[in-house]
Design goal:
globular; single chain; about 0% helix; four-stranded antiparallel beta sheet
């Protein structure tokens, strides 16, 4: 059974950085694409970025271009979401999800991490 274990959220000041981790437990990361989603209070969940099982990277959100990046470490079976120059509007619960291919449609993802809160505030 595949599990995704997230870590790295927290409180950060505007302009700060955080790196979220998504460890794949049970199967190798090579077989899966990892999508990152976020849900702000009172809003629907939205797709942010995805890294494909071949390493291809997809950005779904214009507002994070140049600030957020995805990567993976196959030796650690872990995907990362690096978030720089954070803004208050980035405040949300961030979740990673696994699927054979990348998609902005959350309903297509089979496995989800537990979610981690990111709060950007002074």
């Amino acid at each position: 059974q595949l599990q995704l274990v997230e870590s790295g959220g927290g409180l950060v000041q505007p302009g700060g950085s955080l790196r979220l981790s998504c460890e794949v437990v049970g199967l190798t990361l090579d077989r899966y694409s990892i999508g990152w989603f976020r849900q702000a209070p009172g809003k629907e969940r939205e797709a942010v970025l995805c890294i494909g099982n071949s390493g291809t990277k997809v950005n779904y959100l214009d507002s994070v271009k140049g600030r957020f990046a995805v990567s993976r470490d196959k030796a650690k079976n872990t995907a990362y979401l690096q978030m720089n120059n954070l803004k208050p509007e980035d405040t949300a619960v961030y979740s990673c999800a696994a699927k054979w291919y990348c998609s902005r449609d959350e309903s297509e993802f089979d496995y989800w991490g537990q979610g981690t809160q990111v709060t950007v505030s002074s």
